[in-house]
Amino acid sequence: MFKFGKAMHEPEIRQEPPAVDLERVVGGIAHEAAGIGKESAELNGLIDDLAALSGRQAETFKALADEIGAMVRANHEIEAVTKASTESVRRARKTVEQIGQGVIAVTDNLSEVADAANEITQIALQTRLVAFNASVEAKRAGEAGRGFAVVADAVRDLAAKVEQSSKLIMSTVTQLDARIKTLADDIQSKGQASGGKGGTFDAAVSEVERGVAEIADAAQHNLASCAGVLDSVKGLSNQVDNTATALQNARKRAEGFLSLSESLIEMAAESGVRTEDTPFIEAVTAAGQRITTLFEEGIRGGTLSMADLFDEHHQPIPGTNPEQFMARFTPYCDKMLPDVLEKLLTLSPKVVFSVATDRKGYIPTHNRKFSKPQGGDPLWNQANSRNRRFFVGRTEWAAINNRKPFLLQTYRRDMGGGNFAVMKDLSVPLFVNGKHWGALRVGYQF
């Protein structure tokens, strides 16, 4: 006998899936996305700090390389000058030697002159004797020899003068010869001697040559040292450049995470499910509508014009540091916007600031705590006088160009004194009579 079990086709029991708590799920996604955004913003800030440090290091290495390059050029100039100096010393030595040889040649020439003068003297003596004999013979001849006697006397006088001149030449030559021989001996002795009080010409020239050679050696040593240091600096500079490139790539990746987290937060807010950001979105949206109303009422009432409101000729305020500006709509904003902006600060202790900014990033009116008159300290002014100034960074630029109902961003804010805080930036676009004017921005902490 066979026993059969349960039928093969028993009806299946279906179970309904558990109810999904959509609000809890979406809220969790928004919370996690906010955490990712906060960490991404912190990472972006750290990368920016490292990039700034890397940039300063690159500038330092460049300046150092420029200084070393200047040292190299200076040493090349020293090398060129020492070569020229060595050549000048060589020419000076050669010139002195040539002078010595020239002096000796002059001495020889003077000797020849003396010999010639001596011969002239001898000839003059003989001429005088001949003239004397001729004069005697002329006297003996009487009247017939008178003319000859006159000539003989003239020749004798000329011979006497020649003899006298020759003796003067010989005397002068003798004196010159003595002086030139002394000069020649002095040049030769100074060219050969190696000692003596105060040194000699040759010793001085040799000392100059040694000094020039030492300078040239030092310049060569400096060139070698500079080349080694320059190679090291270039190597470090290349490493810094590589680091900067790596930081840029890391910044792009972190920026991608940040954008993703912001998109998730916006999707959660747009889903209709209430999240931790919903109260802020509702309050900022209402405040944006109120500012639009104030602008349009001012235009209808004649206290403000569209041309004034959209004035982009911001005029610098003299004597301000950091520089502040005035636009034609600034006085109206100072009068009408503070109540709206100050009310947003009471929304939560997390709210740090609320501002309306035009399309250029200009903030005419800020919260009262950030709108104090400037003083003499630019750093104090930077933190406490933030009205009537331009602020255009990644976050600001995205806010003033946004056309969606709202934009929620995450960024790291400089709180001064080297302190930073990761914050959310919630903005809504401001339209006046259908024309985009700028944005209302509210910054609040996590």
Give a quick precis of the structure:
Belongs to the methyl-accepting chemotaxis (MCP) protein family. One of its GO terms (cellular component) is membrane. The protein has 2 domains: 247 residues, Helix Hairpins (Orthogonal Bundle); 169 residues, PAS domain (Beta-Lactamase), CATH 3.30.450.
N-to-C terminal Cα separation, in Å?
77 Å
Strand content: 5-15%
Mean pLDDT: 74
Number of strands: 8
The CATH architecture classification of the largest domain is: Orthogonal Bundle
Shape: rod-shaped
What's the CATH H-level superfamily name of the largest domain? Answer: Methyl-accepting chemotaxis protein
Main-sheet strand order equals 3-8-7-6
Q: Which stretches of 5+ consecutive residues score pLDDT under 50?
A: 1-20, 194-199
Task: Please work out how many helical segments DSSP would assign.
Answer: 9
Helix content: 55-70%
Radius of gyration: 54 Å
What structural class do you assign from the helix and strand content?
A: alpha+beta
CATH class of the largest domain: Mainly Alpha
Q: What is the N-to-C succession of helices and strands?
A: HHHHHEEHHEEHEHEEE
Q: Can you tell me the number of structural domains?
A: 2
CATH fold node name of the largest domain? Helix Hairpins
InterPro entries: Chemotax_Me-accpt_rcpt, MCPsignal_dom
Pfam families: MCPsignal
Protein name: Chemotaxis protein
Family: Belongs to the methyl-accepting chemotaxis (MCP) protein family.
